[in-house]
Amino acid sequence: MPSKMSKPLCVxxxxxxxxxxxxxQTPQFVPFxxxxxxxxxxxxxxxxxxxxTNPVTADAWNKWVRDRDKEIRGRIExxxxxxxxxxxxxxxxxxxxxxxxxxxxxxYGKDREVNSLAEKRADDLIRALAGPRLSEGMLEMRVFLEKxxxxxxxxxxxxxxKAYLLANLAHQRDDLNKWGAELSAKKISIYQGFKDRDIxxxxxxxxxxxxxxxxxxxxEQGLLKPGSVHRVAIVGPGLDFVNxxxxxxxxxxxxxxxxxxxxxxxxxxxxxxxxxxVYTFDISARVNRHIERARKTAAAGKPYTIxxxxxxxxxxxxxxxxxxxxxxQKFGDRIGKPATRIAVPAAAAxxxxxxxxxxxxxxxxxxxxxxxxxxxxxxxPPQQQFxxxxxxxxxxxxxxxxxxxxxxxxxxxxxxGGFLLTNEILPGTAPSxxxxxxxxxxxxxxxxxxxxxxxxxxx
Length: 459
Ligand SMILES: C[S@@+](CC[C@H](N)C(=O)[O-])C[C@H]1O[C@@H](n2cnc3c(N)ncnc32)[C@H](O)[C@@H]1O
Hints:
This protein has 459 residues and is an alpha/beta fold.
């Protein structure tokens, strides 16, 4: 009886509960027992470090999982270097020079005009990075360079930065050419090319639209009931700033997927934006810091403003165009209100933009967690497991073993009957408590179809 409990006992129980809640939110490396069924099923696909004994031992797993986590997180630094290269190619705020398109990029090094364009853009970018008042995105890029030991403040530092920028541009060209050649020789699928690449935080609204279509279909088929979503996790929410396809730098780095999801859940009547709990799992310190800052700002009563960018393409199918643009127009109406957009510079005129401010109370619903979903886990008690987890454009960075480990691991954090939605297949080659569920395909343009794969957590 609580009323008859002694005060020290109450304090002890309170501390115990607080500790349990904190532990449930602290990621741990996936324990050997949980990984074992996957390792056994995928014996032939194991890396040499796990093959030194047969079967794999707990010691070998515990070492490997920590080493791999470090290695994967190292790929994030490469992704940041790629963002800097995208800024060099596509930025419009610091230069009057035309942008370096993918076609230009392929000719970098052998076309004098492209070489000269790259040189001029590099000079302009370095001048801007050395300037006194930097935009948030520029500042992040300068901090990235400084962490690598480069300083734009001295002539020697600027020379080294230029060499670094141009070497990265050449690296992106080689990557593009190699990928293109392998694709046309059909040696790889469009997705396989990502699995050993640096991990970028690029993001845009297109996967969010297909997730909304999929959620709608789940409701129509009775898989999800109104008001049934209370706890949600987003794997790899990303941070949009000069993304490689349609990117630019006239808006600050922003995260959009958590807001897109809450907005869709509210529009469909699946969740209440004032009470839904949203966790984000990401290995990028930039992403996690950004969300933590947005929460702090919201706690001080300030909303979060998002620029909603899209680049409608001529080749889009009419149905996709109408559906996506309708989604884009409505985006945010359940969680915020329209705001003044940042005007699109003439050099990026193909980008459309509108803006919304998201209510502070909605921003506060999001909790960022630094977690590698392939190798780390949250040991959640049943009442804290998720109703829904989504992860788009993330599993593409991993091979079959890592995808199988992620599938088995995510299953442990989803409540029985809950769902995982992704836009990449997570093969069922190893046992997991996630069974294949509904799939959605959306024809974007001839030869371009987007997919959402649903998985349901078994008992
Ligand atoms: C390309 S972005 C995708 C952003 C967004 N989901 C989208 O579709 O637009 C990939 C995101 O996944 C994160 N990520 C990659 N591997 C991860 C892992 N193993 N665990 C958690 N986050 C990861 C990256 O840091 C990045 O934020």
